[in-house]
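Before relying on records like the one below, remember that each one covers exactly one chain. Contacts with other chains, cofactors or solvent are not represented anywhere in the record.
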Amino acid sequence: PRFLLVAAPSFLAGGTMAKDFGELVLVLGDAHIPHRAAFIPEKFQARGGVASAAASAQKNPHVVPFLVWSQRMLVPNKMQHVVCTGNLSTREQYDEIRALAPNCHVVAGDMDETGASAPFPESKVVQIGQCADDGPLGAAASSPLSAVRGHSETTRDAAPDDVVRFRIGVVHGHQIVPWGDAHALAMMQRRLDVDILVTGHTHKNAVHEVDGKWFINPGSITGAYSSVQPDVVPSFVLLAIQGAKVVTYVYELHGDNVEVSKSEFHKPLA
């Protein structure tokens, strides 16, 4: 389902409803500022509304309140994690997204610095989840910039019986050939041994499930052009992790309207 966002009431601006929606993970990438784009669209950051969602609210009253609250996602203290697929291009951009959440997980893009002295690894695996009492686990499972370079984080840590952890693997995506290919993505997912694989590079958002695993591409948050995609829709993804369930919201900017589509993923329990 797809919805238009409405203005966020002032009493929600502080993020007091975050706990009601589980542990929140902002997924973004391919900003390419300032080389291919000047800034992140104001509609992803502005306080004002862009359209009426009354009709959508009548159809699905459980979804729209969350969209109302989450309109101003790109401000601090809204979520617990930020996952970035790379190509931030500048230190200033990294500092901005690092300020959004206590846990910031970034991998190097094909336009970022690589090698032994690079600030970001080529891949990451983070573990995020909740205890049975809805308390967040992610902060303890993965501290800011705590991942190991390469594909070394493939060992699954034992978790208490009342904890559901999602292993989330992150790579930029230029390493996956052909780019965005389903079989190549599945190979990377198996290599990292993850429940959710996050990639970028194509500048086209995508969310799909294959054989009980989820594959997420947040697209380009600025709408920066790519070598194969001259006209790009600005987009990012928000994950709400609630026990064994992940609710995914894809935000897209079409003209002056921010549209949101929703899907759910349930992790099979042994």
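DSSP finds five helices and twelve strands in the chain.
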